[in-house]
Design goal:
With 125 residues, the chain is α/β, with parallel strands linked by helices. It is 21% helix and 38% strand. The protein folds into 2 domains: 1-65, 2,3-Dihydroxybiphenyl 1,2-Dioxygenase, domain 1 (Roll), CATH 3.10.180.10; 70-125, 2,3-Dihydroxybiphenyl 1,2-Dioxygenase, domain 1, CATH 3.10.180.10.
Length: 125
């Protein structure tokens, strides 16, 4: 078995696609109109696991936008060149919460996506 995909709650599909594809550089794998909703799937280049962008439906789901990790970093964007990708993301509008730091496991910095979720940009040691 392997983890095939995870869902990611957003206020609307197009803002999710813009963040993942335009800002992070993910590939749009599928965008299928299902009438009342869309099946939108994105994936980092070369990755096997995808993210299914899910539009919040109703007040309970809207309240969870940006809170899926309960305020903790819960998404880890791994890079093979931290400086390059930190610079690229900064130029694309990402605001990091901290300066890059070196930990025993690698170089890392935390940022928030436009929805409020916290991410690590990380280059493994």
């Amino acid at each position: 078995m392997q983890l095939n995909s995870v869902s990611f709650i957003v206020p609307d599909y197009d803002s999710g696609i813009a963040f993942f594809c335009d800002t992070l550089g993910f590939d749009l794998v599928q965008d299928i109109d299902q009438g009342h909703k869309r099946w939108v799937e994105v994936r980092a280049p070369g990755a096997q696991t995808s993210i299914v962008i899910a539009r919040a439906d109703g007040p309970e789901q809207r309240a969870m936008i940006g809170r899926q990790g309960a305020g903790r970093v819960w998404l880890f964007l791994e890079t093979d060149d931290f400086a390059r990708d930190h610079d690229k993301l900064t130029r694309r509008g990402i605001v990091f919460e901290e300066d890059p730091r070196v930990e025993p496991y690698g170089t890392v910095a935390v940022f928030r996506d436009p929805f409020g979720n916290r991410w690590d940009l990380i280059q493994r040691a």
